[in-house]
Structure formats: C-alpha cells, structure tokens
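Bench notes, bay 3.
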Amino acid sequence: MKHLKVPILLLCLSIINYGCFEDNDDNTISANQINDFVWKGMNLFYLYKDNIPNLANDRFFSDDEYADYLNSFSKPEDLFESLIYQRENVDRYSWIVNDYIALERFFDGCSVINGMEFSLFNTPNTSNNVFGIVRMVLTGSDADSKGVKRGDIFYEVDGDQLYYNSESDNNFNLFGSSSYSITLGTYNDNGTPETTDDTIDSINETITLNKVELCENPIFKTDIFDLGSKKVGYLMYNGFTADYDAQLNTIFGDFKSNTIDDLVLDLRYNPGGSVNTAILLASMITGQFTGDVFSTEEWNTEFQTAIENENPELLINRFVNNDAGASLNSLNLSKVYIIATDFSASASELVINSLDPYIDVIHIGENTEGKYQASTTLYDSEDFSREGVNPSHSYAMQPLIFKSLNSVGKTDYNNGLTPDIYLEEDYLNLGVLGNANETLLAAALAVIENSGKLSKIKSQNNFTPLKLIDDSNSFETSGSGMYVDKELPSEMINRFLFEQN
C-alpha cells in the first residue's frame, strides 16, 4: 500500500479556529496550511533533522494527530523556530520569511538599507551607554550621499542615547526605522594613555539617514600595487552575489592582462552568499585544478544515503574553467593572500578552506565566523521549487541543508578559521579601505614585499581596547549565509514524499 511519508494537510481539514494570514494579494490562508509546508520542508531537507524528534518520519500516527500538532502553533515562524537545532550554538543561520520576493531581491544583492555598516561598543566609563563606529559606507547609498565616512562615531539615534543592559533590554530597535538620525561624536582620551578618563563627546552634528532599496555591487574596490619588481592585485569583495559573476571575471581579466605576481583578496566584511560564485572565484584564483574536488557536501542521513545511491556526483563541487560557457580568466596562482576577520563567513570561509589543500593560503586578520553550512530556498510547491508555488501566500524558508567539507575532509570549524598572521582593526584609527597604509592591507603587502615592515605593523597593533556589544549585520532580516540553487532530481523528491512501505 502506498503511504504518504509526510502527512498532507489539504482542504479536508477545517480551518475553524485556525490563525489566518493575508498575503500580498489579500488572499486569506489558514496558518495550518503554511505550517504544513514548513513541517514538510524541514522534515525532508533540514540538515539537523536527525536531532529533532518532532521531525521524525514516524512522529505522527494519524493525520488528526498531525493536524493537532500544526494547530498548536499560531504562526509559521513559531513552528519553524521550534524545529531549529540548538539555535545559539549550532544552527544560527536558518530563517523563514513571509515575503519571498524580498528574499529573492536580497540574493540579487538588493535590500532596503541606508548603507551605513557599523559596530556598537560600550561607552567608556559608563555602565550601559553604547556608541557606534562606522566601519564601511556602501557606494551610492543614502549614507554615502550624506557624507557618512568610515570611522565616524555616533552615540544617539533620534536623540536617544544608545544603551544596552541585555539582549532583551536595549534600544537597538531604533535602527529598525526606515528613517532615523544619528548624533555624531568623537572619542576623547583626554591626552592620557589610561582609559579611566576616556569619554564620548558631542561634535554637535546630526545626520538623518533614509533606507531605500540599494543593489550593492560586491566588488567594492580593486587596484594594482607596484612593489618594486612585483605587481600585486587587490580586490575587496563584499558578497558572493551571482549577478556580478561576469563583472568579477572581467576584474580577473584585468589582473591577468597586467600579469600580476600576487593577489590580495579582501574578504574582511564578506558574510558569504552563492556557493557557485565561491567555486568561480576560487577557479579564477587558480585555474590549474579544473575538474578536481573543490568541496563536498554532507546532508541529513536520509538525503545523503539517497544521493550516494542514485547520483553521488551531486555531492561534489569541482573547480571549473567556465561560467555557463564563458571562459574564466584564471591566474594560476600557487599562493594567495586573504584578509578575513570575524565578519567573514560562509562562502568566504568556503573559499579559504577549499583552496587550502591546493595552494598556499596566507590568512591575515582574525578568526572567521565559523559557518560551514549551506542553505537553500524552499517554496510552498509540490517539489519545493519556485515553479508552481502556492499563490495564496508568500512564505518561504531558508533552512540549512548540508555542511561543506574541503577535499581532505575539513569541516566543523565552529570557532572559525585561524589566521596565519593575527591582526585586528583599530576602530579608533580604521584607515581608508584599499589604501596601502591601512593596517590589514599594509600587512599583506609587507608579507609579499618581505621587507621587515610586518614586524613594525604588528608592534603598532596595540590600541585602546573596546568592548564590542553588537553589529549592524545582526539587525538585517537575513544575516550571513551560504546558499545553493542546485536542482535536485524531482524523482528523488517524489520518492521521498510518496514511498512504498
């Protein structure tokens, strides 16, 4: 007899007393119909399914029991969150959205932002006051047009002093407004080396920032430096966004035509993105490993077994020499210098980890974030793809579906990837991104030049300690991530949904 591996909840279930939602077209749909999509998708794809008892295939003995379970969650977000494995320590990256159009725009590099990226610190000699330091301003953004600069300090939002007592007691919700003002200040050490008299002082300037949709070009800065007899290419790359792959290839064509000897790849603020773009970037850096294993994938037990039995090649990502038929401009380097910090995550780490078995990767900066899992977008359709999506709502999920391993099996770097040369950014003296004198880039150039300058740079990397409280990345709807859009055979999914028992 044929059985549904996952109970299907359709029109036979009453929607009386079920919570209801309205989609963008004002169509009303029961919460349980969306919950049904959430549970089925997580049951099938979730990387940590084996660790979640409520996702077990035999969890429910009848459709009625399944319906009661779904009905116990008034919102799809609550059900989704209940199925996450160790949110604080393991799965910090799965998420659900109620507007998949916005999610798709996000993956295209487009989001509604003001363009100011910043970190928040405890104000010296106060118990709970907080101040912010701008670390980067996106080109073409409202913050850019208003003159906000890297290194700017602010301490008030809409006239309110920023404060932090705990995760549940702060006023960081002020950053959620579509428009807000920041009050600028300056760090005053009062001319002494001690921090006991340090203060944040006002400079009596306020800037109002507005959030508008901005499509960010992840290629933030490129340059070629002459170091005596050596030419060094520099690329600051802030996101693995597929729409800019062709432009990335053009940049490498310029590096190639200028016959650069070395490359500095700056991923210090890159939270990740497309796995395929990571493969392309690594293949542009090299070129001599086409067809070799770039990385492999490890899914949940059921999916892993099914793929291994049916098409194990699906678990392997290989170095390539073209992008949809367009030849890659590969540099054939045997060494690369990568700037990476604790803001560098997922696909950034994938590039570092996957290149490491093949070439000499000199990592300069800090430990990276430690994200080795990838997600995919699940839609409410028969095979969870975009095609045939349920028109009655606009929910979608982005759950973790596999973890990545390099060609020698390295994964699970929970504490991030450790740098070869440890250096931190001095937030009170950030310097100009892409300038040869900026601390992290200067360190990379010093190593390439082998002139002894590195020792001096490291000796100067001793500055006023600041207590980090939070970061602007955490205020985004979608934070750091590594995602794939590969298509799995529909027959495999169908067998999962309708299997012979």
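Next record in the batch:
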Amino acid sequence: MISAVCWVPKGIAKPLPDSVEPPSQEEIQELLKLPVESGSDDNESSEEDNNSEEENEGMVVETNKSKDAVAMALAAADAIGNKSVEFPRELKVDEIADGLKELDMEHYDDDDDEGIDIFGNGSVGGFYCPSSDMGKYPSAVDDDEDEIEDMTIKPSDQIIICARNEDEVSHLEIWVYEEQTEEGGSNMYVHHDIILPAFPLALAWLDCNLKGGDKGNFVAVGTMQPEIEIWDLDVLDAVEPSIMLGGVVKCDTSRNIAKIKKKKKNKQAATYKDGSHTNAVLGLAWNSEYRNVLASASADKSVKIWDIVAEKCEHTMHPHTDKVQAVAWNSNQATVLLSGSFDRSIVMMDMRAPTHPGVRWLVPADVESLAWDPHTDHSFVVSLEDGTVRGFDIRVAVSAVDSEGKPMFTLHAHDKAVCTITYNPAAPNLLATGSTDKMVKLWDMTNNQPTCIASTNPKVGAVFSACFSKDSPFLLGVGGSKGNLHVWDTLDNSEVSRRFGNFRPQN
C-alpha cells in the first residue's frame, strides 16, 4: 500500500545525487565492539560443550572443508548443465584440492601475454581497426555515461515521494515524473528508494538545510514508532536518517549480554529521549516560513513543535483526549496551527501562546484530514470518517457564543471515510477529496456551495493520500491500498478546464 504522497518542488533536487560514504575504520571498530545477542535465553554456558568443541576442533575444520568441496563441485555441475551428478559418500578433499590447484582458478582472469593473438594485431587481416569505432565492444566508460544519464534529474522533472509498504518491507520511493517526453506525453519511473525500519504513516517535505547553507532537500517521516526520521533525498543508498527526533534511548553498548537479556526478561518500560512522542506519529506539517519548525501529531494524544536544526522539542500540547490524526499550518498566518483528533474535535492554536487552550470545534465523527484554504487566511476544511467534509470560518468561531462552532457547509462527499483532502495551490475554490470508496473527486467550492465537477477511479484501491503539485498545480498525485502511484492531469477533464483553465501556469 501507499500510505502517503508528497511532491518536491522543481529545481530543488541535485541533478546527480551523492553516494553515501562508506564507514571509516573507526566506525567499523565501534560496530565490532557492540554486544552480540544469542537467539537463546539461556544465560548459562555448558563447559562440556566447550570442551567437546575444543577436542573435536580438527574434525570441525575437516567437515567444513568437505562442505566447501561439495559446494564447489555442485557449482561446477551447475555450470556445465549437469543436474544429476552423483557424489560418493566419502569425498576425498585432497583430490579435489589438487584438481582446483591444477586449474589455477584464482588467476583465471589474468592476462596471458605469451598467448596467441587469435584476432591479429590490428594490421591487415585482423578484426579490429584502431582508426575506426566499428567492431569495438562497449566499454565500461560507455556504461558509466549511460548510468549517469539515467540518474540525472533535469530541472524540468517533477519528483514525487511515496511512503510504501510491500511484503512487510517499508520504504520511500522517489519517483521522477516527466510531463513532456521526446515521444510526446508523460513518463514516470522510480529514481531510487530508501529502506525504512517501520511502517510509514505521514510525510512532510522540507528545505531547511541541516548540513549548513541556504536550502536542502529533506523529507520527514512519521511511522508506527515514536521517533520522527528526517532523510536527505540527495543521498543514494543511505542506511540511516540525517537526524532523528525523539525515539527510544538506545542501550549502553558497554553493557554485557547477560544484563541485556535480564532487562528483556523483566520487560521494563522503554526509556524515551527528552521531548519524544511515546506512540506512533500519525501526522506531520512543515512550516514553510519558519523553516526550522516541524509540527507532529501522535497516537499518544499530543501535538509537538520541533526545532529540527537544534533537534529538540520546543513545545508539547495536549489539546485532545484521543489520538491526534492530523496537523496543518496556516500558510497566511504562519504561527497558527490546526489539529484534528479521534476525539471528534478540531483545535486551533497560536504558537505565540502555546499554553493557551485554543479554539475548539466539534464534529460528529473521527477526523481523517485537515486543509487550510491557501487563498484565504480564515477558512479550512476537515474530512471525516463518516464520508462528509465540513468547512469552517475561524472568524465565526471566535465571535460565536456556541463553543461547538457551526460549519459554513456540510458536504456528503463519499460513501466511506474521506482519508485525504487537498486544495489546489493555484486555482481558488478547487478542492480534491479521496476516499476508501476508491474514488477521487474534484469540487468547485465557490460561495461555500460545493459542486462536484469531476470524479475518477484511479485504480489504486482505497485512496489514502492525494496531493496537488505546486509547480504543475493541476497534477494530482494519488496513492492507495493497491500500492499503485497514479498522477491525474485534472485539466484533461473538460469541466475542470472550462472552470479553472485560466489558472494554468504560463510557460
């Protein structure tokens, strides 16, 4: 399944990503010093087993030699296509070793300067002519050039990040989407991926450069674990994130195996880092104005504000009594944060007064997703588990005597839970919704009177995430339960083109 999707702005990614540096000798030595745990819980070692192993050391070595010889013989049989080779019960290791020594396989690829030049020396009668490229075999240089060309990200390329889980393996897929190819039409492919240690639930792209300088290309990942991982998208084959916010305190490497096993038997509660969440991270929101600020929502019922440069939690709020599913910053008032929870409420907070309880709205079902209208600073929409979408005006809520806050509209958008909701960044009043009923719908929200103008089944199963691109605002990336990534060019729909075509960016 694809649980979350987000876009990377054009021109941010390095044309050719860096390769991860191999570990230094000092790091390797530190890894070798780490305690190795046995699969058994028995802490007592048997002296008899140790003595018998020392007595039979020669036998063990001989047995290993026999096993190696059998493996070599099987490999040789497979190489010549003979799958029915029969081996004697007692294999004479010395004979096989002498045979391998005679073949001198270790020097098989070495050049033989004294050999016969079968194809001549490049003069008349030879098959190779130095003055011509004809007849040359492809060189490693050509292969390297082709590989570099395939890995190069062009300034016109769009990049989509998918949080995917497949066959119990979790990873990020970094896709390249080409809007116009030489053959015409669009093309998309996976550029590289990043293996994750836990099931991913939320993504937030951010450009705050954690390595110094002006901007970077990073993604924050919320998973079933309490930590938040931030990965550098410009590094290939990375095995660990650039930074990790919160999480469980790792065991002291100086402890011996017996103490570690004892701790496991006692099943002591985990020790968390200062300011860490203590349960899964369900939602993330990066503040594009205060670029070192990240908000997170968790199943531990809390909302946290992080300084990702300092790598610490600045504020922890508890505005809800159940799991917090989503958070969203107001793009026009950068200190205002919205949170939605399974306690069927939405709370608006201002980070200039983090201890203030905020303004609360009540809704009839669990909150699935939130979105501020990017074209105003006072309205937002919320999607619910019952298939409805509700719109609110914060000016009405602030002045209302009724603390519940009445919605501007209630839209019965889908037959099942509306898992994702997103505004178009360029066209005012264009809203997209996605649901577990497998449908994606587009709505004209003019005058707070929603009208469905397009709908499609993108064949991704239950829709969990949908997001408009900021650079090509009518491209909608969609992911769902089948694990397929779909990009819908919404302007292909005639009604969308008629109503909102004038907001198409001009090249």
